[in-house]
Amino acid sequence: MKAQLRFFTNMTINCRGKLLDFTTPKVMGILNVTPDSFFDGGKLNNENDVLKQTEKMLSEGADMLDIGGMSSRPGAEIISEEEELKRVLPPIKNIIHQFPEAILSVDTIHARVAEESLNLGAHIINDISAGRYDAKMIPVVAKYHASFILMHMQGLPADMQKQPHYENVATELMRFFGERITVCKSAGIFDTIIDVGFGFGKNVEHNFTLLRNLKYFAQLNVPIMAGVSRKAMICKVLDVIPTNALNGT
């Protein structure tokens, strides 16, 4: 299975009527329908490939799937809503039709993409900007009673790895998540998940500091998502390319 993301907590999240119990860690399978993702860009370029990969991940034990139409690798540019919709809506529709029991997350920073995806039946919105890029995002997620993944990122993908700086990375992220969770609750979003954003505006030292201190964020009383699959924090330490980083992951 590609790109496992593990959640650590002991609570339940309501994904638009489908419950996820986090008594044990859960695994998220990643479906990149974009030509320029850092590891597998362009591999899922037709309907059959997407459905085969979906079936494979679910059969291997994925608890949910995350589909993304815009690469967020370092240096990537923001694409238009129209292009992102063209990439993600057909596979979302096909997955929901073929695998109606699957819990589907959509990775987007655009409120319009989120709304059209939720209207098709998606359950979770995964926003690398935590609702900061598009002011309409949080109202959309609240309107559809969807679960919301809040990720921390310093800057945007195009510039996030240009000398990221923190006085205390764990403390600063704790303040950030506290503020974003409060904003969500004020809007009526109560099923939130946090993602510290390994590799998003962080150097190797920042990443491993966060990894060592993940339990620190448990006091926020929300599930914690950790996405480290084949990322630079592993490749640089082991001196390997992403293709050979599975053991490190």
Strand and helix layout:
Blueprint: E1 5-8, E2 12-15, E3 18-21, E4 27-32, H1 47-59, E5 64-68, H2 81-98, E6 104-107, H3 111-120, E7 124-127, H4 137-143, E8 147-151, H5 169-187, E9 192-195, H6 204-212, E10 224-226, H7 232-238
Parallel strand pairs: 4-5, 5-6, 6-7, 7-8, 8-9, 9-10
Antiparallel strand pairs: 1-4, 1-10, 2-3
Helix pairs in contact: 1-2, 2-3, 3-4, 6-7
Describe the protein:
This protein has about 250 residues and is an alpha/beta fold. It is built from 7 helices and 10 strands. The protein has helices at about 45-60, 80-100, 110-120, 135-145, 170-185, 205-210, 230-240; strands spanning about 5-10, 10-15, 20, 25-30, 65-70, 105, 125, 145-150, 190-195, 225. The protein has an 8-stranded mixed β-barrel, surrounded by 4 helices. A two-stranded antiparallel sheet has the order 2-3. Strand 5, helix 2 and strand 6 (about 105) form a beta-alpha-beta unit. Helix 2 runs parallel beside helix 3, helix 3 runs parallel beside helix 4 and helix 6 (about 205-210) crosses helix 7. The chain is globular and about 45 Å long. The protein starts with a strand and ends in an 11-residue tail after the last helix.
